[in-house]
Protein 1
Amino acid sequence: MSDAILEVKNLKIQFKSGKETVQPIRGVDFTLKKGETLGVVGESGSGKSVTSLAVMGLLPETSSEIVDGEINFNGKDLTKMKEKQFRKIRGNEISMIFQEPMTSLNPVFTIGQQLSEPLRQHRNMSKKEIEKEIIDVLNQVGIPRAEQIINEYPHQLSGGMRQRVMISLALLCQPELMIADEPTTALDVTIQAQILELMKDIKDKNDMSLLLITHDLGVVAEMCDRVVVMYAGEIVEVAEINELFDEPRHPYTRGLIDSMPTQNARKERLYSISGQVPKPNEITKGCVFANRCPLAFDKCFEEAPPVFEKGDHISKCWLQDSKEGEVV
Amino acid sequence: MLDFIIKRFLQVIVVVFLALTVVFFLIRLAGDPTTLFLPPDAPREQIEEYRELLGYNRPLYVQYGDFVSSAVQGDFGESLRSQEDALGIVLSRLPATFQLAISALVLALLIAIPLGVLSAYKRNTVFDRIGVGLTVVGQAVPSFWLGLLLIFFFAAQLKVLPSGGGGTPVHMILPTLTLAAYSVARFTRFTRSAMLDVLRKDYIRTAKASGVPTMRLIMRYALRNSLIPIITLVALDLGVLLGGAVITEVVFSWPGVGRLLMQSLMNRDFPIVLAGVFIIALIYAIINFVADILYAYVNPQIRVK
Ligand SMILES: Nc1ncnc2c1ncn2[C@@H]1O[C@H](COP(=O)(O)OP(=O)(O)OP(=O)(O)O)[C@@H](O)[C@H]1O
Ligand SMILES: [Mg+2]
């Protein structure tokens, strides 16, 4: 408990639009230890962004609701926190880098104006000190001509530069926890590598914990200590990084690993998991992955598997059950 | 930026020129004014003489050419009625029109922007629903009807405000309210939808993630982004308020350009009509020109290349 910075317990989130309600997050549990990089992987639509927005308290106020569960940050439950207190944490103790670098910066304010906001809100600093701090951080994330950049507008910067600006925005108050939601997905490959490298450096230097959300197992292998595999609003497997790649227990994880392009072995055709993530309103009884699972058997369609724990390795698949005894 | 300004300025000239040309030919369709200024039983020769004196007997294109060449020198001729300089008469009425339009605009903005912002912030609450309902009504009510209604209550029944005329600030209250009503409704709706649009944007989420409190988020960040479309609308409406105050001016006997234009049209006092159209078109075009520059100013994507 003491070494956990973030504990998400049985989190359930629903969205309302008109009369319809959907529940894209249905009982999510995971723990992020201090100083750790925890990866969250899963296909598009599995609920990664919704989960991370919930941690930041940034879910749309009117249309969404946390129906159950806890999000404990340093022992305090964020789901019960008043907006006024929560605001003191945002951008200060927890910060977030968003998936969309092109639209996440305000087009009518300069970079400097936007970057000054976290310091203005959370630190008692003069304008001069703020500017100096911003330039420092911009230099840290490898932005050239920082003194000029602060007077420029987002549209004057490339995508890679904007994401660096977003990273510096997240870094300004030296948060304990940084959430990065697919920080490199929108960028091209060479820039991706630079940004990841940068994040790794920064994390080590600043002694932060990092929640790294991605659908790319390659990124996970590069960056993470442990991995949470999400599927259709549930967590299907949690394991330490090497163990996950060496001994994946859930067929979905195996599918993800098999569909990774590898550099040395050029397969004729990439493996891919057939079918799609079910929409939140399409989920019925049984295992969420059953309809796409190559190993599914009758029980999988009847009853959702519980969590099987073997040490730190957790998975949610009937094939772990010794009674079934037919682990492939 | 300078290119942009020059290009837009040339457009102003073209717009004014086109407006004058269209009106010049349109009013000629209504016949020539000579008959109106002579007694009905005037002999033919006298009418012809009078037409010749005023130049209305020449071919239309010659008259047009003549009109254009003097108009570019700022000469719109003399009023057929009072023989005074037409442009001078129009200009003397301009301050009254401006006074009314500006006060209506200021009133509309003062009411509409806070209302629209609040409506967006409290969307789908009772407050918002009532607000939206009122704006629909506000946009649907014709201004002559609203004007008459206000006169009925405040001037005829309660006898607290004058029903017409100009001069004192008290005289301005009813016409200003009448003229502002439509703009209040329009601006409120527009501000609300612009704000709703902006509040959904990723960059607002980013600001919130930096710990910006709700009030600042709305008043500084979201409002600034919404101002871009609002400015355009306001500019368009200021043109409408200046040129379109005709009905309000007539209802309240307000001594402005609109009422003058209406009266001159009835009297076929063409020089004044043309001078009036010139002034209104010029103002309209210049306002749009200024709005574009302002727009570029608040939107760095245009300003900073
Ligand atoms: N504001 C919302 N209203 C209704 N449903 C939503 C909303 N935001 C997300 N959802 C639903 O929640 C589910 C999970 O979405 P989420 O964005 O978390 O996926 P993701 O794992 O981040 O995917 P991606 O890799 O594409 O970013 C989806 O089915 C989506 O339709
Ligand atoms: Mg996402």
Protein 2
Amino acid sequence: MPTIYDIDTGGKAPALEARDLSVFYGSKVAVKEISLTIPANRVVALIGPSGCGKSTLLRCLNRMNDLVSGARVEGEVAFRGKNLYDTDVDPVEVRRRIGMVFQKPNPFPKSIYENTAFGPRINGFRGDLDSLVEQSLRQAALWDEVHDRLSDSAYALSGGQQQRLCIARTLAVKPEIVLMDEPASALDPIATQRIEELIYELKKEYTIIIVTHNMQQAARISDYTAFLYMGELIEYGPTESIFTNPREERTEAYVTGRFG
Amino acid sequence: MSQPTGAAGSEVFDPAALAHKRTRNLAEHVIGLLLFLCAAASTLITVGIVLVLLRETISFFSSVSLIDFLTDPQWTPLFQEKHFGILPLAAGSFMVAAGAAVVAVPTGLLTALFLSEYASERLRAFLKPTLEILAGIPTVVYGYFALTFVTPVLRALFPSTEVYNAAAASIVVGIMIIPTISSLSEDALRAVPSSLREGAYGLGATKLEVSTRVVLPAALSGVIAAFILGISRAIGETMAVTIAAGQMPNLTLNPLESIETMTAYIVQASLGDTPHGSIGYQTLFAVGMTLFLITLAMNIVSQLILSRFREAYQ
Ligand SMILES: Nc1ncnc2c1ncn2[C@@H]1O[C@H](COP(=O)(O)OP(=O)(O)O)[C@@H](O)[C@H]1O
Ligand SMILES: [Mg+2]
């Protein structure tokens, strides 16, 4: 059984709750009966050695795993009291409310403006698109760098800027939760630092679940940390406890860098 | 030949080991030369064809002015009263190509979208080869299919349809070029990185939105290049249009009338008894040159578009 600390949800309802969640690729189990409570307006980090199921777990939380042929999910993910895996749930609606930022920046081959406006456009946004684009780019701390060249191709931006554009694009849909899968792993240290500062700002309005293989990063930016090992949740609790005083031997071995 | 020496250490290193090996050098040269000859041969053949075309075309234009060729509305080089206006033939070719595009562009594009974005791997593995069979049917079969099936249907629908008509030819040529358009478009669509699809799904896009608003625009230049290649095939198509569209140079926009395309004229004139060196004989080359220039231009345009496409995403 995993060691799970009391999670202080700050008096609010949890943003997301996984219950006995298992994921199979064919007959292979990638995630084993994980239960996890995500408090609202917090940053939760998922850490663990490569292949332990972090991305798989993350992708289950907004039903991105539906797109992987051969993936099968058991268990529940509760979002505002509704199980996202109920048969009457439309994954398209889920992903509007629970957005995702990927490991490699993946802007569309369109202008900076059109990238940001893409989500609102397909979701039938009625209102002032220009100001929504500006607001989203500001939230992603990109506005000052691009405000005078919104019609340039997104590919004219640096990797770090592209990733912030992808974050802006996600924010423009106004999700409640943002999932990030190693969002800085393809970036240089300075770009990484900007993303980390940005995440710190964003948790005021959003709940963020971030996968990272960088332990210092998890320690710096997250409030809670979940350590996964071979598809199982080993330990989940306040980041400080996980890093300074883990109760599980495997957690300690991992956070002190003895394996992984 | 020097002995191959083992790893450094035990043996004394002989600097001669780094020298050129004679037999290997010879083999390299022979193979290089052979490959060069093959490349040179195909280039020479192409140049030769163009030179022959050019020579006869030049003698043609020594007796017919370029202005007449481009503006005279009649094409009657084999009659007593000769006219050498390419317009009726060019119009015939373009009408067939345009009709074929109307049939093949939407069908080919939708097929490509279906195969690349919607079909399961298994369905795709079945449909793709089936489609390629279409490309393997001899064009003469398409011609008779037009004549014996499409034309009777058209005549039932539109009684004014002539026995030989541009519409039937357009339809079968359209069917003929669907595989070209769908398979090249599909290649372009599938080359779009799946990370772009994921990004769009992550924003709450439906499959239709992902296909039409992300994948298709990202692949657009490749798709347009596929259209152009398909249409240039339609312009060059010979057998089916000769059989089904007729041999009546006719400057018209009515697809139900009999017409003649540039390719069909070449067939007609080369089968007839035009004496070598006569003006009738030279028209073959003038028309051939025109056709060559048109398809060349279309191929160049599609190459230009494709090379832009390679830079479209990282
Ligand atoms: N699409 C897939 N098909 C089959 N197996 C997969 C697939 N994606 C991931 N896996 C497997 O599931 C396990 C967990 O992978 P993943 O969630 O990507 O781990 P992490 O993100 O922690 O590195 C790995 O053993 C991986 O090989
Ligand atoms: Mg991963």
